[in-house]
Amino acid sequence: MRHHTFDFIEIPTTDMGASQGFYAAAFGWKFQDWGDDYADILEAGLSGGLRKVDAPPSRGGTLAIIYSNDLEASEKAVLTAGGRITEKHEFPGGRRFQFSDPSGVELAVWTKAEH
Predict the structure, then answer these.
(1) Mind listing the domains of the chain with CATH numbers?
(2) What pTM was estimated for this model as a whole?
(3) Three-class SS of the chain
(4) Mean pLDDT of 28-34
């Protein structure tokens, strides 16, 4: 751990089982349950957890972004797992899409530009 660096990310969820199923199907993540209201996210590259909340979060705020070697395959996996694509765009360094998970949490997936 380094001072003032990102160390952990937490994703709110209104349905722990649905969120675990979604992220497992879309990205291959695994989970360690700690009761009914919390689960550590395993094999996601950065330490994190799913935290049970009573109401879906509002759109906006900090955006967690996942890297992909194959953006099209990741988009298909998100859709197949039950996610909803909310935005797509290109930028000088690559391309990305944003999506909502089953609890309405918005995240993004990006890939580097091909040269």
Answers:
(1) 9-112 (3.10.180.10)
(2) 0.88
(3) CCCCCCCCEEEEECCHHHHHHHHHHHHCCEEEECCCCEEEEECCCCCEEEEECCCCCCCCCCCCEEECCCHHHHHHHHHHCCCEEEEEEEECCEEEEEEECCCCCEEEEEEECCC
(4) 97
